[in-house]
Every structure is written in structure tokens, then in C-alpha cells.
Write a structure and sequence with these properties.
binds pyridoxal-5'-phosphate; 14 strands; Aspartate Aminotransferase, domain 2; 3-stranded antiparallel sheet; 7-stranded mixed sheet; about 40% helix; 13 helices; Aspartate Aminotransferase, domain 1
């Protein structure tokens, strides 16, 4: 028997080797410090948990509309107006089981066989696989550290073909933490405004920004752009609600209706209880978000300052998300005992075994020569982890 040929288009994540090894070590009782995590280490705020408990007690346990309850979509409309100066109607919003599903269903609604989606690298691991499932082609633009991992208009121009259907912009970025200024966004917007292509704006890290960076939603740059932009956001990262699986898309009717159609034959609605929790997250007090953001910023400052003390490492100072993406290329060609470092997977496996620190190789995100280090971890773990990293890296000759 053979499974579907479709599976041959979807790769297994290259991070698997490192994360499987980290899991196995932990199972054996080895104290591994996990810098590979992609979720806040905080609990969901109390007011949000209480709203969910209330929803259960009030038996809000039935199917909802596939696109989400009108109350939640109204809360999302209000949020997009309040935070992003965007005017949407509730019919422009569809709620999904996590922003990941919002993205997946957006891509399925947008791309047909042979259609191209431009994706700047390094990218969030799932994007190209989603494109493959849809039968589309990913056109990868490799950004570079000198530009702060941001695409330029010239790079974008040269990636456009007659088959281009859209571009995916993740801002702030996972895995680099880079964030586009309003002027940089405007330059891209000016070029994209008159083209017949969609923009998928993954803005899931919107609330986690640092220093004096000011987040601007891509769709808010002009009315013309808004008509072809699909804003992707959710409650996972801002409200420490990754397990609740609640995300949303706002955009033009042909895509929003497409997502609705796909959901109506697959998952139907996002969990009703999570939808009630999300209403409270968006409408309720926002002080927990700021509290978490501040803690992330302290950790980021610590980790950035310690890592950049290591002579071989260069790193951009992230303005968003909760990752650092240091350049570790200078360790390539070095060795310690039986370890020979040829690439970011080798270095990650070495650091896992020698330092007992788990991180993610840059190749997983489509850019070799880097690793991703998450600071969604306690300060104690960061301090101990940095000590271990420094000591293991110093052994490489
Ligand atoms: C860039 C990016 N987009 C989307 C998601 C999906 O988030 P959710 O938990 O809402 O599915 C993630 C989660 O890691 C992410 O990093």
C-alpha cells in the first residue's frame, strides 16, 4: 500500500533530528536547557482563564459559525481599529484554530497548482510546506544580515514572475526578530500597490516589540493595499495562549470566503471555549501583555549582550518576537574531539550534547550559517544556558 503522492512534496522538518535528540536526553533525565521553544513560558492571564471557565459553566459548548462567533469577530474588528487603525466589517474576519490554520487556509484559498508565493528567508518553517500542500511553488528570497534580514524592493522585483500570486511578509519575524520600520514598509508598499498580487501579512508577534520600535500593520498603509492584504494574527503569542488554538484572518472577500469554505469541510469552527477566552483577551485589560513584553525585553537585552561578547558571533539586535538569530558561520570548520562542525545542524547537535542546550539550526528556516535561540525561558535558565554555550563554544578549535 502507498500513502498519497502529496506527502512526497512535504518535507520533514530538519529540526527533527535536534529536537528528537533533545527529547530523548530529557527522557533519560538529562538536564537540557531548551532554547528551541516557540511559545511564551507564562501562564494565560487569569481574566482570560476565568472567561473560559464561565463559558464552560454557561454551557457555551455547541458548534459556532464556521467563521467564528459574531461577538469574537466584533472584538477582532475593534482590536484592528484600536491597535492598527484598520476598518473592517465582521464579515471580513474569519476565526481559525490558531494563526497556523489561518495561514494554511489562506494559502489554500489563494494558490492553485503552479502559482507562486514569494517568501523571504529565513522564514517560519511551515510556510513552504503549506505552499507545497496547496500545489504552489515557493519563491524564496534569501535576505542577509547586513540588511537586517529585510527584503529590498530590488530583491522583490527580481522575484516576480507571471505566476506570482502573492508575497508573505512576517513582521516582526520568526526566526530573526527583525521588524520593518514604517518607512521600509512604505517602500515595499509603493512597489506592491499597483501589482496584481496578494500580500499575506503574518503579524502574530505584533505585541512583542522592543526599544522605540513602533509596529504598523501592512494593510493600514493604504486602502488599495488593504484590499489585497490578508492580515494574520491571533492570541497565541501576545496573551500566552498557544494551547488554546485561536487565530484569525482579515482580508478581501474572495479569500475570507475561501477560508470559510475550507473550514466548513474540515475543522468547522475554532473551539467555542477558546473563542470566549479570546473575546476577554482582546476586550479585557491589557496590562498582562505589557508585563510579559517587558520581561521578554529584559531577557532579550541580557542574551543579546552576552552572545555578542563571543568573538566569533555577530547578531542583529531583535526589535520583535522572542528569538535571537546569531551568525555562527565562524565555527564552521572547527572541531572538538570527534565533533566536526560543517553546518548549523552539526553545531546544534554539538551544543546539545556538549552543553546540554537545545536550539534550532538556521537551515530549518532556509538560511545556513545561523541558529535560532529563543528567550521564552526563565532568566535563571538564560544565565545557566549562556554559561554552558560559552564554555562549549570555547572548546571548538
Ligand atoms: C511566524 C508565526 N506565524 C504563525 C504562528 C502560528 O501561531 P498559532 O499558535 O496561532 O497557530 C507562529 C507560531 O509559532 C509563528 O511563529
Amino acid at each position: 500500500m502507498h500513502a498519497s503522492k502529496r506527502l512526497s512534496y512535504i518535507g520533514v522538518s530538519p529540526t527533527m533530528k535536534v529536537s528528537a535528540k533533545a527529547k530523548e536526553m530529557r527522557r533519560k533525565g538529562i538536564d537540557v536547557i531548551d532554547f528551541s521553544v516557540g511559545e511564551p513560558d507564562f501562564p494565560t492571564p487569569e481574566n482570560v482563564k476565568n472567561a473560559a471557565k464561565k463559558a464552560i459553566d454557561e454551557n457555551r459548548t455547541k458548534y459556532t459559525m464556521n467563521v467564528g462567533t459574531p461577538e469574537l469577530r466584533k472584538a477582532i474588528v475593534d482590536k484592528l481599529k484600536r491597535d492598527n487603525n484598520l476598518d473592517y466589517d465582521i464579515s471580513d474576519i474569519v476565526v481559525s484554530s490558531g494563526a497556523k490554520q489561518s495561514l494554511f487556509n489562506t494559502i489554500l484559498s489563494m494558490l492553485y497548482v503552479g502559482d507562486e508565493l514569494i517568501i523571504p528567508a529565513p522564514y517560519w518553517v511551515s510556510y513552504p510546506h503549506m505552499v507545497s500542500v496547496a500545489g504552489g511553488e515557493s519563491v524564496i528570497i534569501k535576505t542577509n544580515e547586513k540588511n537586517g534580514f529585510k527584503i529590498t524592493v530590488d530583491e522583490l522585483k527580481s522575484a516576480i514572475t507571471p505566476f506570482t500570486k502573492g508575497i508573505l511578509l512576517c513582521n516582526p519575524s520568526n526566526p530573526t526578530g527583525t521588524a520593518y520600520t514604517v518607512n521600509e514598509l512604505k517602500q515595499l508598499a509603493e512597489f506592491l500597490e499597483d501589482l496584481d498580487i496578494y500580500i499575506i501579512a503574518d503579524e502574530i508577534y505584533e505585541k512583542l516589540t522592543y526599544g522605540d520600535y513602533k509596529f504598523v500593520s501592512f494593510a493600514s498603509l493604504s486602502e488599495k493595499l488593504k484590499k489585497k492584504t490578508i492580515v494574520i494574527n491571533g492570541v497565541s503569542k501576545a496573551y500566552a495562549m498557544t494551547g488554546w488554538r485561536l487565530g484569525y484572518a482579515a482580508g478581501p472577500p474572495e479569500i475570507i470566503n475561501g477560508i470559510n469554505k475550507i473550514q466548513s469541510h474540515s475543522t468547522s469552527n475554532a473551539s467555542s471555549i477558546s473563542q470566549y477566552a479570546a473575546i476577554e483577551a482582546l476586550n479585557g485589560p491589557q496590562d498582562a501583555v505589557e508585563k510579559m513584553r517587558k520581561i521578554f525585553e529584559e531577557r532579550k537585552n541580557y542574551l543579546y549582550s552576552e552572545l555578542t561578547k563571543i568573538e566569533e558571533i555577530t547578531c542583529i539586535n531583535p526589535q520583535g518576537a522572542f528569538y535571537l538569530f546569531p551568525n555562527i558561520g565562524k565555527f564552521f570548520g572547527k572541531a572538538y574531539g570527534s565533533y566536526i562542525i560543517k553546518n548549523s545542524v552539526d553545531l546544534s547537535l554539538y551544543l546539545l550534547e556538549e552543553a546540554k542546550v537545545a536550539l534550532v539550526p538556521g537551515s530549518a528556516f532556509g538560511l545556513e550559517g545561523y541558529v535560532r535561540i529563543s528567550f521564552a525561558n526563565s532568566m535563571d535558565n538564560l544565565i545557566e544556558g549562556v554559561k554552558r554555550l560559552k564554555s562549549a563554544l570555547a572548546k571548538l578549535q
